[in-house]
Amino acid sequence: MLSAVTDDESPRRIRRGLRWVFWRHLPFGGLVGALILFSISLTPSLLPRPWYLQGVVSGVTALVGFGIGSAISALIRFFGVREPSPQFKRWAWRLLLPASLLIGGVFLYLGAQWDKVVRDLMGSPQQTVLEWGYMVIAALVFGYLFLVISRLFRALGLGIGLLLDLVMPRRIAMISGAGLAVFLFVGFLSGFVFDNMVYLVNGFFSVVNEGTSEGINEPTSTLRSGGPASLISWDSLGVKGRDFTGTGGGPTMTDIIVFNALLRSRPIEDAFTREPATEPIRVYVGLESAGSVEEQVALAVAELDRTEAWDRSVIMIATTTGTGWINEKVAASLEYMHNGDTAIVGLQYSYLPSWISFVLDRKKAASAGRTLVNGVHEWWSQLPEDHRPLLLVYGESLGSYGTERAFDDVKDLLNKVDGALLVGPTFVNPIHNDITENRDEGSPEWRAVYLNGQEVRVAVVPDDLSQPTSPWLSPGIVYLSNSSDPITYSNPALVYSPPDWLGDPRGPDVTPDMMWLPLITFWQMAGDLAFSTGVPAGHGHKYGANVVDGWAALSAPERWTDADTQRLRDVIGHDE
């Protein structure tokens, strides 16, 4: 049945409706909701945040509170529930400003105290009072910006609803208008906006991929991809590949000889004659070096043959992050530890940084890890059994996910390789999740003990690698997983369920003040993701020299001592 509204009245109603959306005063319920959620946004999370990031988190959280409060008010009016008296409303409005200043001030003070505790736990510098002032301004700016965007969206729904009001009952029209607005908005984001954003971002980082970092030059060693006689051109390696194989990246034979002299407290001349080092092999295949992942792996295996990597004592397969990054501390520490008698192989599978690759195309990480591990393992297994190098795998962050996806489970991993170092696992890592879910009773999630620690060790600090005291078998798996790493613990289940890692005991750098709140905790940790490496080593998603202890637990050569590990930590972590 058609509405009684005439065609002449319809445009006026639409104009009035749009003015109502853009010019009406902020509703009481929305402001109360904004105040409540702004205050909650200041409660502590895993990591300290700089003022501008806290401003974004608090501003958006306050807007969510504004939306919830406004929705409750609208529902009250929509269903005709009796509203408070005009006198009550006047007093409520008069008290709102002083109450906001009081409550907001109290929570800003508490937020500063909570933030201080977190920063003390991590050795991060404290924020000043001025920076907290900047945070409030940033929260207001971002809150208002997103309010404008949300009202544009609401205007769309209202406009559609008013048009539908011409042909259907008002309430059904308004609900239908809101539903269609959501449909159009999501379609616009996932279609036009999302697809074009992916295209633009991919194009931008493909240009970045053509650069070369300062201090990196084309290698002169035949034992590095991109160098003389290499099957892989220097230009095709990508910026992270050039960082990895170029001159200026990683220790040379001379560097290792000097380290040996310092390590053994002998003169350098004596080290040259008594402990000759070997030039490490570094094999890398860029995204532009071949047409497919399979062709990249075939090229990598051919490079291993060309460099005679089968004659080394250790081969390490590195599953990279999105852009093709391999942590130089991980690679160098293995090379120093084994006197350069090593070969490391990796490949690039994306132009995108790790966090974008994780969201958009982590299937590429899984495919690259599986194809590379299987290809190198097949080549390695064809070598004589008594002449096979130690075969190790490594992955960090998204790279750890790619490494895990090369194996069916823990048993399969241990059957195929001689050791695995997995650093900063993500919350979707299947093997890591299996280990934590099936950990021994009494061990915390953040330092899971699996089958009495015989083959798998999860370490927050290096001393964890010696726990439990049961024999440490080989092959083994070492996870370096900081208890404050949001990459590991930002599981979407936080929206509705409290995590085990917030129970007792807590990790050594997790504040006792942190509490789980539905939705809020997940949102706060989403903010932590943006600052996950902006903390000192050993916290967040930054692992520093702890990788040395990981390799020492898995593959330390004969005569290697704890004192050697500490000296190597000093070399690897000199810039921390």
Describe the protein in words.
The protein is of the alpha/beta class and 576 residues long. It has two domains: 9-205, no CATH class; 216-482 and 543-572, no CATH class. Helices cover 53% and strands 7% of the residues. The protein contains 19 helices and seven strands. Strands 1-3-2-4-5-7-6 form a seven-stranded parallel sheet, with helices on both faces. It is elongated.
What is the averaged pLDDT score?
A: 86
Give the ordered list of helices and strands. HHHHHHHHHEHEHEHEHHEHEEHHHH
Span of the ends, CA to CA: 73 Å
The best one-word shape is elongated
Looking at how many chains there are and whether they match, the oligomeric state comes to single chain
Query: How many beta-strand elements?
Result: 7
The profile of the biggest β sheet is: 7 strands, parallel
In percent terms, what proportion of residues is strand?
Answer: 5-15%
Please tell me the total number of domains.
Answer: 2
- Count, helices: 19
Compact overview of the structure:
The chain has 576 residues and is α/β, with parallel strands linked by helices. The protein has helices at 9-23, 28-41, 51-78, 86-122, 129-164, 170-208, 238-245, 253-263, 268-274, 293-306, 328-337, 354-381, 398-404, 410-416, 430-437, 486-489, 520-529, 546-555, 562-572; strands spanning 281-285, 314-319, 342-347, 390-396, 419-423, 456-459, 476-480.
